[in-house]
Amino acid sequence: MAFPFFGKKTGDSAGGGGKDPAGKPAQTAPSGFDPAKAEIFFVQARVKQETGSFAYALHLWLSGLRLDPNNLPALQAYFECVRASGLTQTPKDLKGVVDGPGPVLKALSAIMNWSFRQGDGELAVRAAVGVAELSLRDVSVWVAPRALAVVKEHEVKPRKDQFIRLMQVFIANEQYDYANNAGQGALNLDPGDFKLSNDLRDLAAMATMSKGGYEDNNQQGGFRKNIRDQDRQKQLDENERLTKSVSTLDRNVERTKGEYEARPTDKPTILAYIQALFERKSVEDWNQAIAVAERAYEQTQEYRFKHVAGEVRVKLGQLRLKKLKEKLDAAPDDASVRSAFLDQEAKQLELEIEQLQGAVQAYPTDLAKKFDLGQRYILAGRFEEAIAQLQQSKGDGRYKAQSLASLARCFKQIGWMDEAVGTLRQAVENHADPNDAGGLELRYELCVCLLAKGAQDKDLASAEEADRLASAIAVQNIMFKDVREVRGKIKGVIAGIKGG
User: Fold this and answer.
1) Where in the sequence is the domain holding 200, given as residue range(s)?
2) pTM of the entire structure?
3) What is the CA radius of gyration of the chain?
4) Those residues with Cβ within 8 angstroms of residue 223's Cβ, 6 or more apart along the chain or in another chain
5) Which of 258, 308, 392, 477 is deepest in the core (most CB within 10 A)?
């Protein structure tokens, strides 16, 4: 996941320097920021705030933040000043302090607007995005979690895009737990977004790595605890950075290879070498990573090494499939290319199923893996096996709505219409907002199932309920999927049932 719009430097133009407390134009440094000059404003702001001159203090705080926007104590003092002032609307004359072009003024304007309406989720999100776009790290890691709390706790109808924008901010800040939390909020609003669901698996892994979540001897954080040498810890941190130069990747491979050859049975060393090979992303490296992992599994009989080997095999298969897809896109009428692509697609699905089967057996309490296996079974047409996994994965609140929707599709595929309808009713009831994208998808699925049940069982009540659902969906979004065609089919079924 890449978020290039969070790449600006804190030295970008501040859009002007305002006036200093004496009323003279403030001079900014060539970079656009001048913390020393900003401190003059902040000192005066503290004095005015302590004496109760809140309106003037607010001017001073914002004027100083124009020159030093990443000063977190100053920003926190500004918010405290807003609270102490008792104001609930932005004073008109205060807007002039941050009025003007430039990304800094845009960000400060967003902060100012939110500060007077702190229960407004959209204003909170705009403030979080504004400071993140400037790479104001200190401020961003303070603002973003508060913005997420506002969206979750105060927005009457939070939107998926609000959670997604915050998720991007958290990723840019490397706050992966918060990013996962925001992503889950988006997924709850749109449980049919399987790409987002897959992204959240990656985020969960990144959050675990950032906290030192490698397992060793059944102890959380064991990987890191086994690495006590300070220099080696620094090397590990270098390995885990998301962006590495080619030379860094090469150095990591050579260093970890040397350590592995010196200590071929040391588990953290093995894992470090495998990860270095994997991150260099060549086919040769990935095959070597598989060989190292399999050798470690033979020596230790620890499943995690077998799992790592399988995960790399899955990545290699995905790479082969991607290349074949590119060939097929370039020559869509080539029968041999199409055949090769379909054959690889089928092999890839079986490979992923085999990998997930092993993971589910090894980690029986990991409901996320059961959910993933259920989805693969559906793709393979193995609906009864999918049902067995999804009935368990719905016990995890993160996957409940998606699991229920998938269960209903499975029941429908095997002809269990009553179970399909009942499951979808439960999914709709458990979904926060029936009118958002996810709710719309669930109601559409229920409508289609009721239509099938009405036609199969000559059940007028089911057909009429399907008609009401289709009508409501069409009123909300007449272009949603094939709802107009579905309505026509429902009318035909109802007429047939009534006509005997």
Assistant:
1) 35-211
2) 0.52
3) 28
4) 212, 213, 214, 215, 216, 268, 271
5) 308
- CB atoms closer than 10 angstroms to residue 230: 8
**201 lies in some domain:** yes
DSSP string across 115-169: HT-TT-HHHHHHHHHHHHHTT-HHHHHHHHHHHHHHHHHT-SS--HHHHHHHHHH
Q: Which of 248, 270, 250 is nearest to 259 (CA)?
A: 270
Give the range with max mean pLDDT: 12-21, 272-281, 333-342: 333-342
Tokens representing 363 are 């980690």
CATH code: domain of residue 118: 1.25.40
Helix/strand/coil for 493? helix
Two structure tokens written together for 164: 């997604």
Q: Which residue has the tokens 């979004």?
A: 477
In a domain, 4, yes or no: no
Residues 6+ apart with CB under 8 A from 250: 280
Residue 185 and residue 159 in contact, taking contact as beta carbons nearer than 8 Å: no
Output the six-digit token pair for 417.
């219409």
Residue 339 forms part of a structural domain: no
pLDDT at 245: 54
DSSP per-residue codes, 257-298 = HHHHHH-TT-HHHHHHHHHHHHHH--HHHHHHHHHHHHHHHH
Stretch 108-128: mean pLDDT: 92
Residue 3 lies in a domain: no
Q: Is 477 left (phi over 0), alpha (psi -120 to 50) or beta?
A: beta
- The answer to whether 165 and 129 have CB atoms below 8 angstroms apart is yes
In this structure, what token pair is assigned to residue 211? 């906290």
Q: Which residues of 245-256 are buried (b: 16+ CB within 10 A; e: fewer)?
A: eeeebeebbebb
How many structural domains comprise the chain? 1
pLDDT level of residue 194 (50, 70, 90 thresholds): low
